[in-house]
Amino acid sequence: MNFSNKISDLEKNHLLRSRRIANSAQGTNMKIDNKDVINFCSNDYLSLANHPKIKEALVQGVEKYGAGSGASHLVSGHSESHNLLEESLAEFTGQESALLFSSGYSANLGIFSALRDEIEWSVQDKLNHASLIDGCRLVGLPIQRYHHNNLESLANKIKNSLAPDLLLQTMSLVWMEIEQIFKELLRLLTNLILLLCRMMHTALASLIQLFQSTLSIWQLLERLQALWGLLFLETRTS
After folding, report:
1. Domain final position from 172, 201, 222
2. What is the pTM of this model?
């Protein structure tokens, strides 16, 4: 494979991605590449990444456990804090137990690896997160994808399959949809600004026309006043 040509093709199609440098903590307002920006693309949905209490707890954790676990959970890396968090989550969700993963990708890989011998194929919403799709592919689980939130498309996929044991995965609202909502809001906002500009232009034109009309009337009154003064002067003279 010629990587130079591949990269050139990506650049031509505006598909070449590069990493931007964050110069501040995560938040709604950030500094990226030394520029102040409003952040619409973070996964920090609850704004906890820079929360004072979270940072305080992290400092306390470093003081007690150091800067790393030192091993996997199955060896000696499962700390008391990990265990307490899993027990709390299990109690909160009403489950027997809970198991924490460091990322969505590792969670899905673990889940599909555990279920691989129990299911023959997976049917997924076409807009499912990439970690769901990659989790199936990495363990060799066949995938069928149906149109987003389309029950008819889902029924056809299931009907045409000969495999009885399946895993159905769906997401009712995904980031692509949220992105479309933002694009639609931006379009509506742009149209609103254009409408306001047109209204302001029309109002300004009307004001100018009114001013010109008022000026004409004022000039006419000045002429009438001057004419009246001449008539009055002639009357007194005669």
Report:
1. 172
2. 0.57
